[in-house]
Amino acid sequence: MLDALTLDQIRTFVAVADSGSFRAGAGSLSRAQSGVSVAVANLEAQLGLLLFDRSGHRPVLTPQGEALLADARDILLRVDAMRARARGFGDGVELRLSIVVDTLFPLSAVGAALAGMRAHYPSVAIRLEVQPLGGPLQALTDQRCTLAIMVGEDFRDPRISFEALSPVSQVAVVAAGHPLAAGRGLGVPDLADHVQIVLSDPTALSEGRDFGVLSPQSCRVTSQDAKHALILSGVGWGRLPLWLVEDDLSSGRLVRLPTTALGRDGQVQAQSYLARRLDQPFGPAARSFAAALTESCRA
């Protein structure tokens, strides 16, 4: 009788699997342990198989339980997304719109979209943060923002939807007076002999990974402004978004690194995305901002 399955049973199954025990699962659901055990047992009876091996001190997922856990998560994700969408239809205008923007994305585009949104919803308060690397995704998963603008495909989560905006170019640059500026046909060994200015991830999402770090002599900073300032001052080299350094390149304060080890003409391109949680309501102000930003990126 698969039609007798309930969302409560499926949610309880996932809670026990995530927490590692019936007791901890009951605590996460604020329910009695006996009720959680009964819900999982009823689910097993309806499915006709065991989801957990209970022979040890703690319940362990059976191979069938492991396989069905992904389906259970997908069901809950879709149901939560449907509920959020339904709430959004009935909700009024948000009191506040919180946005976290990747450091690589031009804030001028964000500002223009916010101005457009406020023309229609002037009472909505705005909270804007700029974060590198995993910061925007972490803010979404922690529910600290309504929307995030992310660049690249390094960070993903099944609870988050992504809508492509526009490509963002990064260029490898160095100050005009830096020794690397006078080089020709530089290779990785040449770059490794000099300090590379690198952004640090404020989250643990990139733990154990380095993105584009070629030099063992790295100087890690916490903001794009700091990275830009150190490169301009001649401390080292690094990649910066093209929109940020166009004036510096035109004036000669910065020069592109003459190397093909960092992309053609020292330039690489990544796609930017507007991201939001599938299980959170999307109010009219957020929809207005998203539409304005998407339209400006297509222009």
Q: Can you summarize the main beta sheet? A: 7 strands, mixed
Q: For the record, what CATH class of the largest domain applies?
A: Alpha Beta
CATH architecture of the largest domain: 3-Layer(aba) Sandwich
Percent strand equals 15-25%
Mind telling me the C-alpha Rg? 25 Å
Report on this structure.
With 299 residues, the protein is of the alpha/beta class. It has three domains: 2-90, Orthogonal Bundle (Arc Repressor Mutant, subunit A); 96-166 and 271-298, 3-Layer(aba) Sandwich (D-Maltodextrin-Binding Protein, domain 2), CATH 3.40.190.10; 168-268, 3-Layer(aba) Sandwich (D-Maltodextrin-Binding Protein, domain 2), CATH 3.40.190.290. It is 41% helix and 22% strand. It has ten helices and eleven strands. Strands 3, 4, 5, 6, 9, 10 and 11 form a seven-stranded mixed β-sheet that branches. Helix 5 links the parallel strand 3 (96-102) and strand 4. The longest helix has 28 residues, at 63-90. 33% of the residues are buried.
What is the gist of this entry?
By secondary structure, the protein is α/β, with parallel strands linked by helices. Helices cover 41% and strands 22% of the residues.
Layout of helices and strands:
Layout: H1 7-19, H2 22-29, H3 33-47, E1 52-53, E2 60-61, H4 63-90, E3 96-102, H5 107-120, E4 125-131, H6 135-141, E5 147-151, E6 160-175, H7 188-192, E7 196-199, E8 218-221, H8 224-232, E9 238-241, H9 242-251, E10 254-256, E11 267-277, H10 284-298
Helix pairs in contact: 1-2, 1-3, 1-4, 2-3, 5-10
